[in-house]
Design a protein that fits this description.
Layout lengths: L13 E5 L4 E3 L1 H8 L4 E6 L5 H5 L6 E4 L7 H12 L19 H12 L5 E5 L10 E6 L2 H9 L15 H23 L5 E4 L7 E4 H11 L9 E5 L5 H5 L9 E8 L5 E6 L2 E6 L1 H6 L1 H5 L1 H7 L5 E7 L8 E3 L3 H8 L7 E8 L4 E6 L5 H12 L7 H4 E5 L5 E4 L5 E3 L3 E8 L6 E4 L15 H7 L6 H7 L5 E6 L2 E7 L6 E8 L2 E5 L5 E7 L2 E5 L8 E4 L3 E4 L5 E6 L4 E8 L2
Parallel strand pairs: 1-11, 3-5, 3-6, 4-5, 6-7
Antiparallel strand pairs: 2-8, 7-8, 9-10, 10-13, 11-12, 13-20, 14-21, 15-18, 15-20, 16-17, 16-19, 22-23, 23-24, 24-31, 25-30, 26-29, 26-31, 27-28, 27-30
Amino acid sequence: MIPLQTSTYDKAPYVPVGSAEEVVVGARAIAAALSGARVVVVEAYPGVRTEDLLQVVGEGRVVDVATAYRSPAALDELVAADLTDDPLFGRLTSFSILDFFDPAALAALQASVAGCTGRVVVVGTGASLVCDGDLLVYADLARWEIQQRQRSGELGNLAADNAGERPSLLYKRGFFLDWRAADRLKASLLPAVDHFLDTATGSRPLLVGGDAVRRGLVAAAARPFRVVPYFDPAPWGGRWMESVCDLPPAASGSYGWCFDCVPEENSLLLGFGDERVELPALDLVLSQPISLLGSRVVERFGVEFPIRFDFLDTVGGGNLSLQVHPLPSHIRDEFGWGYTQDESYYLLDAMPDATVYLGLRDDVDPARFLADLEAAQTGGPPFPAEDHVHVRPARKHDHFLIPAGTVHCSGAGSMVLEISATPFIFTFKLWDWGRLGLDGLPRPINVERGRRSIVWDRRASVVERELVNVVTPLGSGDGWRSERTGLHPAEPLETHRHWFTGTVPLSTHGSVNVLNLVEGAEAVVESPTGAFAPYVVHYAETFVVPAAVGSYTVRAVDGECAVVQAFVRP
């Protein structure tokens, strides 16, 4: 293996907001802080433990709204059309948290609370639908932590009796149902919340005022920041991230993923002196969409963060699954999502024998391709990928464009910075090299869905001309040069690469920017007008520059640096 560049990669970045005195720490202190209100409403994101709420609410009658939910069977019947019987995919729901309640039981609960003369605390997902209260507390939790609790078997889905079910099914139900409904309610409550409760670690809860959190979110939307990355093992995982990012050995297998900028799932840390309040980064998207994303991006994508950066590590690992992403009409008509997962692979690093599978061979026979895939799934010989798929060398700083419909996967020996639009989970695996997932079970294969998505004329000659290192010079100056590296004209994102030994001037182009320092140990992001404090980034770190920032610069600290910048093209 070639020597790997090390990094002082920061795994706990935060946005400075205020002083530690603004944070109430511990269950007893929080209960005391809330004790002056007669009616306290503790709204909770699905996945927050009820016991974590009960330890902080103090004296009085406690009303758990879960007693008014529909029965699991009744809820399943109501949402069956959205959940479908597919093991991975459903349809984005239009249901609200109100639909999780039995109407008669909710009315009775509302009447019961209204008739209370003493102190009453209403807790749980949907608590704010029972009464207004004198204080509104929001107990929040990032989706990454929810997934950990689901994987451990302790947590099921909202109002469902399914704890311990296969984690992929729990995630599917959360993605298509629970989180959609909860996010709609959260968005309506964010301006009115009196206190936010950080429940990421139940043993040390933190309470911070709503105004302080909103002040922090406004600050984050006006300056560069990073979300808290998370690392996940994969059956094809490698060793690059463990070495370069200084990670402990993975509990199972090897790290394959790093989600370095997926705000819908990552956390955002707000710094109050030495205290760190952990909230979902999604709160920033929901509360500051125009400043963060840009008005034209919101008009196009809605209040959705449109750019995803993640790492795929196969250095010392195996090939990713051979896959394809759905065409726009497919993802819209079948799943209810407005745009598809166009993407690209930027090679942060590569071993000498690294390859990428990209598009089809010029001589591919579609009928034989599909027949060989079907045979491999039904006990026949392994799928002969090299007979059908275009395979080419992959080198450090190569950029491979992957518009939807392109058959692709990274081969072993690569460290990929994946840059994509963010429909999250809509990947159709065609072939997984005959291996099992980390749970010892086969990972679902979607040959039929893949067949409907493959663009058959995206073959080797087209790939080499249109999808490999399509670099166009953009300009240069004293100590810098810039170039466009993609994406494909069919994709909504554009990427620029900037090489610099001094300071390179950049613009957000009216869109949220996501960048990664792909070369060099350290660089500093600065405002020409002093609008924000200088922000230091290190090798391989992904960072966000909100649309509202406008003009900014990135300065090399020592030697030549390079950043890759992604934004939604006009």
